[in-house]
C-alpha cells in the first residue's frame, strides 16, 4: 500500500480554516474540485489562498487555485463539477471527516401572515431512539449500515442538511445545517433547531432501521424540548406540544407525555415510552449497559461571549472554539465545528469509546440561546456544569440529567437535588421522574437579582 501526506487549507466563505494533515491510501482517488475567482483580490486575500504541496503541484500544474473542496472517492465515482455545493471527504487517522459548502444559517422565516421575520429559533427538538431486534436471523444489526444517501433523504424530510461528520468505530457524529445527529450501533439521536420537523421523519426512519440495519422494534424513545420563544413560527406538527404528542401516540401506543417546570414561563417537555408502574419491573442491567445524559439549555447570555460566534469576531470555527474555551470543556474529544455566516455556531465532539459532546449557539442578542449536551460518564457532572456556565455566562438555564441504574453519574442526581445555589445562580425549580429504564432530574436556575 502506498501512502502520501497532503496538507490542505480549506477556504470557507473566503476565510481560511485550520490546515489538516491528510493521509490517503492507495486505491482511492483524491479528486480536487477547483475554481478560480473572477473578481480581483487584494494582497491580503491572495496570501490566504489555499495551496497544494509541491509534491502534488505537477498533477494540476503550478498555477495557484482556490480550493473549493476535496473529495475522497473510489475510482469510477462521478461528481457534478458544476454543483456549487461541492463536498470534501478525507481520512484523518482512524476518523473520517466530511464537510460541504452550504448556504448561511436560515435566520429569516415567515409569520402566519406570510411576512418575513428576522428571527432564528435556537431551541432544539431532541429525539433519541434505542432500537431492538427480535429476529435472531439478523446478524449484527447496526444503524450505521444505513447508506448516506438514505440519511440525506431523511434530513430533507426534517428540513435540514448534513454539512460535515466525524466517526470512529463506536459512533458517527453529523453536523447539520440545524444542529446535530449521532448514530451508533442501536441508538439514533437527532437534535434540530430552527423550524425543522424531526418527528415527520419517524416513519421513514423506522423503515430504514429495519431494511438496512436489521432492527425490528423500538426499545425506548425520548423526545424533548424547551418551550419555544416564537412557537407560532414553527411548522406542523411542532407548533404545540399537543400536536407532537398526537403524532407520537399514533406511532407508539405505550407513550406518555410530561411537562416539567412552570408552564407559563420556562418549561421543558418530554415524551417517552412505558413509564414505570407498580406492575412494571426494571430489566437487570450490567456495567456495560450504563448510560447517562447531561443537557444544559441556556438563555439571556453575555453579549461579549456571544460576539465570539460571529464572523465579525472570528474568521473560522476553530478560532471560535479556542477563543471561547469550548475545546477545554471535556478533554480527549475529536472536535468537528462550524461557524455560520454571518453568525451561529455548532460543534460535535466524540471520544474513542463512543461518547459525545455537542454545543449549539444562537448569538443574536434578542433571542440568544446555547445548548450543551454530553453522555460522558463521570462520578459527578458538577465540574462540567460549572465549566459550561463559566464559558457562556447565561442569565438563566435548565439542567436535565438522565441516568440508569448502573451509571457512574447517579451521584449527580443527588447533588443537583441538594444544590439550592450554584455560584451566582439560584435554583427556582426542581422535579424528578422515574421511568422504565432510567431516572430523570430537572432543575431550573436564574442569576441572582443585581
TrEMBL record:
Which keywords does the record carry? Autocatalytic cleavage, Decarboxylase, Lyase, Polyamine biosynthesis, Pyruvate, S-adenosyl-L-methionine, Schiff base, Spermidine biosynthesis, Zymogen
Enumerate the catalysed reactions.
S-adenosyl-L-methionine + H(+) = S-adenosyl 3-(methylsulfanyl)propylamine + CO2
Entry-linked InterPro entries: AdoMetDC-like, S-AdoMet_decarboxylase_euk, S-AdoMet_deCO2ase_core, S-AdoMet_deCO2ase_CS
Known cofactor(s): pyruvate
Q: What is its EC number?
A: 4.1.1.50
Q: What class of enzyme is it?
A: lyase
Q: Pathway it belongs to?
A: Amine and polyamine biosynthesis; S-adenosylmethioninamine biosynthesis; S-adenosylmethioninamine from S-adenosyl-L-methionine: step 1/1
* GO function term, MF aspect, one: adenosylmethionine decarboxylase activity
Give the GO terms filed under biological process for this record: spermidine biosynthetic process; spermine biosynthetic process
What Pfam family is a match, any one? SAM_decarbox
PROSITE patterns named in the record: ADOMETDC
One GO CC term on file: cytosol
The similarity annotation says:
Belongs to the eukaryotic AdoMetDC family.
- Which NCBIfam families does UniProt cross-reference here? SAM_DCase
**PANTHER family referenced in this protein's UniProt entry, alphabetically:** S-ADENOSYLMETHIONINE DECARBOXYLASE, S-ADENOSYLMETHIONINE DECARBOXYLASE PROENZYME
Which protein are we looking at?
Answer: adenosylmethionine decarboxylase
Q: Which organism is it from?
A: Henosepilachna vigintioctopunctata
Amino acid at each position: 500500500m502506498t501512502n502520501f501526506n497532503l496538507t490542505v487549507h480549506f477556504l470557507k466563505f473566503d476565510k481560511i480554516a485550520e490546515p489538516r494533515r491528510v493521509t490517503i491510501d492507495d486505491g482511492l482517488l483524491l479528486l480536487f474540485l477547483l475554481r478560480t475567482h473572477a473578481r480581483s483580490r487584494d494582497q491580503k486575500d491572495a496570501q490566504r489562498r489555499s495551496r497544494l504541496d509541491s509534491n502534488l503541484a505537477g498533477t494540476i500544474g503550478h498555477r495557484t487555485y482556490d480550493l473549493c473542496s476535496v473529495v475522497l472517492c473510489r475510482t469510477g465515482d462521478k461528481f457534478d463539477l458544476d454543483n456549487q455545493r461541492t463536498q470534501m471527504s478525507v481520512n484523518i487517522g482512524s476518523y473520517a471527516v466530511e464537510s460541504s459548502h452550504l448556504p448561511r444559517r436560515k435566520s429569516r422565516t415567515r409569520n402566519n401572515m406570510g411576512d418575513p421575520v428576522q428571527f432564528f429559533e435556537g431551541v432544539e427538538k431532541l429525539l433519541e431512539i434505542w432500537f431492538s431486534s427480535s429476529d435472531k436471523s439478523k446478524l449484527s444489526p447496526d444503524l450505521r449500515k444505513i447508506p448516506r444517501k438514505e440519511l440525506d433523504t431523511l434530513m430533507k424530510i426534517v428540513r435540514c442538511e448534513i454539512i460535515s461528520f466525524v466517526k470512529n468505530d463506536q459512533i458517527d457524529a453529523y453536523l447539520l445545517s440545524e444542529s446535530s445527529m449521532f448514530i451508533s450501533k442501536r441508538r439514533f439521536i437527532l437534535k434540530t433547531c430552527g423550524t425543522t420537523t424531526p418527528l415527520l421523519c419517524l416513519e421513514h426512519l423506522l423503515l430504514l432501521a429495519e431494511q438496512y440495519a436489521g432492527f425490528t422494534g423500538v426499545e425506548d424513545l425520548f423526545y424533548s424540548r424547551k418551550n419555544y420563544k416564537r412557537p407560532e413560527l414553527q411548522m406542523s406538527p411542532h407548533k404545540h406540544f399537543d400536536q407532537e404528542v398526537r403524532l407520537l401516540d399514533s406511532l407508539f401506543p405505550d407513550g406518555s407525555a410530561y411537562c416539567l417546570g412552570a408552564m407559563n414561563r420556562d418549561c421543558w417537555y418530554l415524551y417517552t415510552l412505558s413509564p414505570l408502574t407498580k406492575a412494571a419491573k426494571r430489566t437487570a442491567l450490567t456495567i456495560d449497559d450504563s448510560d447517562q445524559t447531561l443537557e444544559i439549555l441556556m438563555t439571556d447570555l453575555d453579549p461579549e461571549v456571544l460576539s465570539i460566534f460571529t464572523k465579525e469576531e472570528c474568521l473560522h470555527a476553530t478560532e471560535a472554539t479556542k477563543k471561547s474555551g469550548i475545546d477545554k470543556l471535556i478533554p480527549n474529544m475529536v472536535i468537528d465545528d462550524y461557524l455560520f455566516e454571518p453568525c451561529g455556531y455548532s460543534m460535535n465532539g466524540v471520544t474513542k469509546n463512543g461518547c459525545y459532546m455537542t454545543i449549539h449557539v444562537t448569538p443574536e442578542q434578542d433571542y440568544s440561546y446555547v445548548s450543551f449536551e454530553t453522555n460522558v460518564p463521570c462520578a459527578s457532572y458538577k465540574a462540567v456544569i460549572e465549566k459550561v456556565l463559566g464559558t457562556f455566562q447565561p442569565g438563566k438555564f435548565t439542567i436535565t440529567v438522565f441516568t440508569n441504574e448502573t451509571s457512574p453519574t447517579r451521584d449527580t442526581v443527588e447533588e443537583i437535588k441538594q444544590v439550592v445555589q450554584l455560584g451566582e445562580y439560584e435554583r427556582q425549580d426542581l422535579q424528578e421522574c422515574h421511568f422504565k429504564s432510567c431516572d430523570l432530574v430537572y432543575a431550573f436556575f436564574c442569576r441572582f437579582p443585581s
